[in-house]
């Protein structure tokens, strides 16, 4: 299995959780903005720090299992993990959060 195939399976398993959370809780604009900013931040941090770690030779990838697209030194497959995290973590928080519409 390629790194992209593994990443696609993992992200595909995370998408239904996000869909259930969004349909059930109907988050507002502020939630979407926070989630989008989180995704953007994690993608930038992944590009920077993966490139630094690869340049420092802390780890290597099997070249035969990569698609061949890179952002800096980071292979595109590495960006699936922050995407999965942004799908799962906000969805779980949304599902576990109490109903904000209740009077206090």
From TrEMBL:
It is found in: Membrane. Pathway: Carotenoid biosynthesis. One of its GO terms (cellular component) is membrane. The keyword Nucleotide-binding does not apply. Keywords: Carotenoid biosynthesis, Isomerase, Membrane, Transmembrane, Transmembrane helix. It is a multi-pass membrane protein. The chain crosses the membrane at residues 6-24, 31-59, 79-98. InterPro entries: Lycopene_cyclase_dom (IPR017825). One of its GO terms (biological process) is carotenoid biosynthetic process. It comes from the Bacteria. GO terms for molecular function: intramolecular lyase activity; lycopene beta cyclase activity. This is Lycopene cyclase domain-containing protein.
């Amino acid at each position: 299995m390629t790194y992209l195939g593994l990443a696609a399976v993992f992200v595909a398993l995370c998408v239904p959780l996000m869909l259930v959370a969004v349909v059930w809780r109907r988050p507002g604009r502020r939630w979407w903005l926070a989630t989008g900013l989180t995704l953007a931040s994690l993608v930038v941090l992944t590009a920077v720090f993966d490139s630094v770690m690869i340049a420092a030779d802390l780890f290597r990838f099997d070249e035969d299992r990569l698609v061949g697209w890179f952002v800096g030194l980071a292979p595109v497959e590495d960006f699936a993990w922050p995407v999965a995290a942004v799908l799962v973590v906000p969805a779980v928080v949304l599902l576990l959060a109490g109903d904000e519409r209740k009077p206090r």
